[in-house]
Amino acid sequence: QVQLVESGGGLVQPGGSLRLSCAASGIIFRLYTMGWYRQAPGKQRELVASITFSSSTNYADSVKGRFTISRDNAKSTVYLQMNSLKPEDTAVYYCNAVLPTTTHNLWGQGTQVTVSS
After folding, report:
1. pLDDT category of residue 103 using cuts at 50, 70 and 90
2. What is the spatial distance between Cα 57 and Cα 55, in angstroms, rounded to a whole number?
3. Residue 56 has what pLDDT?
4. Comparing C-alpha atoms, which of 27, 23, 18, 12 is closest to residue 80?
5. Nearest-5° angle of CA 21, CA 66, CA 74?
6. What pLDDT digit, counting tens, does each position of 47-84 carry?
7. What are phi and psi of 29, to 5 degrees?
8. From CA 107, how far away is CA 36, in angstroms rounded?
9. pLDDT band with cut points at 50, 70 and 90 for residue 102
10. C-beta contacts of 1-6 below 8 A and 24+ residues apart
């Protein structure tokens, strides 16, 4: 079964940390560009970070220096380490998998991250 399953969301105080995980199944994970997107209420979904098959990374300006994306091909899992969280980071975070040069594009179901005191 082809699917992406996110975990690790929750409620955290400003300045705190969370680590999101996304486990993939049914795909040749090592070939995919993996990404984390987020969507806050009333806003469009936006790219947070991505990592290619060769582990090249890209970050939104708003999270540079605070978030780190990584992947473990042996576990078919991508991670998003989020530090120094701010209230404006509150959103549903989605995992995405894209097979380069194709239209194969997968989404997870999303995990809620709430940053509040």
Report:
1. confident
2. 6
3. 97
4. 18
5. 30
6. 999 999 999 999 999 999 999 999 999 999 999 999 99
7. -55, -40
8. 10
9. confident
10. 1/25, 1/26, 2/26, 2/27, 2/106, 3/106, 3/108, 4/95, 4/96, 4/97, 4/106, 4/107, 4/108, 4/109, 5/108, 5/109, 6/93, 6/94, 6/95, 6/108, 6/109, 6/110, 6/111
pLDDT at 19 over 90: yes
Residue 63: count of CB within 10 angstroms of its CB: 22
User: Which of these, 98, 95, 91, lies nearest to 12 by C-alpha position?
Assistant: 91
For residues 60 and 47, the answer to whether their CB atoms sit within 8 Å is: yes
Amino acid code (one letter) for 42: G
- The count of residues in the chain is 117
Q: How many Å apart are CA 68 and CA 48, to the nearest integer?
A: 10
Name every residue whose Cβ is closer than 8 Å to that of residue 79 and which is 6 or more positions away in sequence: 19, 20, 21, 22, 69, 70, 71, 72
> What three-state secondary structure class fits 47?
strand
Give me 32's structure tokens.
Answer: 């995919």
